[in-house]
Amino acid sequence: MSRFVRPSKYRHVYPNVAKKEACYENVKVSNNAWDTNLISANGTYISINWNASGGGAFAVLPIHRPGKLPDIYPLCRGHTAAVLDTALNPFEDNVVASASDDGTIGLWKIEDCNYDQLEWSDKERERNGGVKDFEPLARISGGGRKVGQVVWHPTASNVLAAATADHMVKLFDVSHASTACSSPSIALRGFTDTIQSLDWDWSGTTLIATSRDRKIRTFDPRQGERPVQIADSHGGIKGARVIWCGDKDRAISTGFSKMSDRQMFLWDTKNLASGPLKQITLDASSGIIMPFWSDNNIVFLAGKGDGNIRYYELEKDELHYLTESKSSEPQRGLTFVPRRFLNTEENEIAKAYKITGTTIQPVSFCVPRKAESFQSDIFPPAPSNVASLTARDFFEGKRGKRMMVSLETGERVQSSGSVPEATVAKSTAPEAQTCLGDFASNPTPTPIATTTATAKDLKKQIEKLRRAVEERDTQIRHLEQENETLKTNQEKVREALLNSL
């Protein structure tokens, strides 16, 4: 056994768990059994799958409003079944995409003014007809029974990848409502079972995905719809996840063995067929592992139902265990914020939002240093909120560099993980392009023209059913609000009686 300890700047990284007043309480998290992280966040908002009746819904919480949420909260409503996943746009902090069990994708724009109603009194709320929910800018048909995951492209604006129940990953140009709602620009095929997770590489050139068929696949969307590589992955069918390791040609997957042991694999993304470079057996617990990558070369592992968060450092194709954040409160979901939102004065190298019961708890991971100046060795430049490509550029086969920002000055710096410009590939992108802001003026998708009377009749029936469902959802929402108001009044009466005794 070696007597020498491997040097590492992150060996003593410690978790700084937020106090109660900085947490978000009375959060009604979805009880749907579908496997996603349940939560997404940036430095401005937190989106979370909500437990709501009358169709699916999710909530968007402003970061600057911690504390106990009111019983009646403005929700993002527009789906007719449970919301399964949400993703905040990396280039527009107030734009969210949602995936639903109803087979559609929702696009939403969050307006801060809508949260002014949280300050209303009961009389003001009643006078204004109750709490006003958010309406979607557009709904995109996923073409199947379910849309399980949504992931934004890391360098191209308004490009959204969605995993659908028909075993495909579909890429949409969401720059314009009518364009987005017609059909996907690219559909990636080759899966034989449910897609469990997907992630883009650093420049958005290659997409990697895991599936319930126990395979791991990579795709180059501009070069064809079939996978570039396929390899056997974890032996168990339960909950395999995969993430790309920043600007490296490495990926990390988590999953289960045939004997139900939890595992972590390190992959060479240029040669999946050779098998994982590294295999680590974690433990025999049953919770699905959620992996997260930090550009400090650290991977964080959070198991659903676990109280701890483990972290490893990747160095020379070795995954070195650092330590773990321990807690007695099990986590249901977890997400990390983009690095550009970190507090460098506190040497915060990563920040997570953790769902425990009905609470969202911020957790910062800090390096214990007392230096007063900026620590450049632990704060490399972070991806900025500026896209290097438009959706049209991407679907025409162009490649972009990741736009980076200095965490010391906030200024743009030379891009990292750059790739050479590609020759233009065969494009399926539409000619017309506008920005996402055009949703406000064109929120309704233009239906494809048809000449058959049968199709027209079906459309009329579908529209009639859609209106009926919307009316039902509105009625249910009003009943929910009345019920919550009655509960609140009952609590006030009960407290008054107790105080009078």
TrEMBL record:
Residue ranges annotated for the DUF1899 domain, each copy included: 3-67
Superkingdom of the source species: Eukaryota
Coiled coil: 448-499
Residues annotated as signal peptide: none
BP term (GO), one: actin filament organization
Keywords assigned by UniProt, alphabetized: Actin-binding, Coiled coil, Phosphoprotein, Repeat, WD repeat
InterPro entries on file: Coronin (IPR015505), DUF1899 (IPR015048), WD40/YVTN_repeat-like_dom_sf (IPR015943), WD40_repeat_dom_sf (IPR036322), WD40_rpt (IPR001680)
GO molecular function: actin filament binding
SMART domains the UniProt entry points to: DUF1899, DUF1900, WD40
Keyword Phosphoprotein among UniProt keywords: yes
Pfam families, A to Z: DUF1899, WD40, WD40_4
Keyword Phosphoprotein carried by entry: yes
WD repeat start and end residues: 76-111
Any one Gene Ontology cellular component term annotated for this protein: actin cortical patch
Similarity section: Belongs to the WD repeat coronin family.
Subunit: Binds to F-actin.
Name of the protein described by the UniProt record: Coronin
Species the sequence originates in: Ustilago bromivora
